[in-house]
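Morning F.,

Quick status update on the modeling queue. The single chain you submitted on Monday has been processed. Sequence for confirmation:
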Amino acid sequence: MKKLLGIMVLSLLLIPALAMSEIFKNEEGKPILKTSSISGFTHHTNHMDHNDYNFQYIKDKTKARAGKYFQRFELRDGDCFGDDNWSDCENNRERVEFSAEPQQRPVKKQCYGYSLMLSKEFIDTHPTNTSLGQIQQKGGPTGTAEGLASFPPLIQIDAFLGGLHLNWHVLSGSKTNVIDRGYHYELKRLRNMKEVWTDISFCLDFENKRMDVWIDGVQKVKILKSPINFVPEEIYFKHGIYRSFISKYKERKKKNKMPTQVVFYDEIRRGASIEEVDVNINPKLKPVD
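Structure tokens below.
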């Protein structure tokens, strides 16, 4: 009887801990991070899986951008995964990355915001590209990049050449053999993002054909052109660490391994206006935990 009571007490102690983390797995066994309804999302899913050290959901209000929780991502050499349709290992890539749901139709204005902090030891892997947030397409155009299959996004927030950049993918050609040209706009120097939270927000205005980007509440980019040339079924936000064409860094630096990168995320939001996603512009926004 005492043994049974002990098991029951232990179970009761474990239940709040699991609920507090808000990390679950779906029916396919893929990790899911549920989020507050005020974020504009219901959850974030890693469709490719990850190792235990790749992701942590941390409770520490002294270090969080706001509220009590924040996310830690760590990507090491050889951290490549895949699903039924794709393998990073076979396509010169590495990642630990979550996709946000629900997805959005590319209509009217879609705005996104998040806070990002680089670790003190963060290493720029140029000429390998490191993406720290992107807007990907479902049912968008396809093609090839350097001989490998490519499913280009609309927007990437990239770390390279010592800076954080908006990478706008201007797509042309045909839907099944798309030509992808990236236009880069520097947002902030990487050295100023280490151990300091940076607030990133941007709006894709499909109705008025323009894009706007803010850093720490200050507008950095204004593009008076349509975000898209090909209309996908839906778009969606992804966050984490994604490295493409890792062989470039190894060849340039004459190294056999990629360096470990650690980044932190907090306050991930979406909405129909900048006021719904940027706490610098709208201080009344409540923390996302």
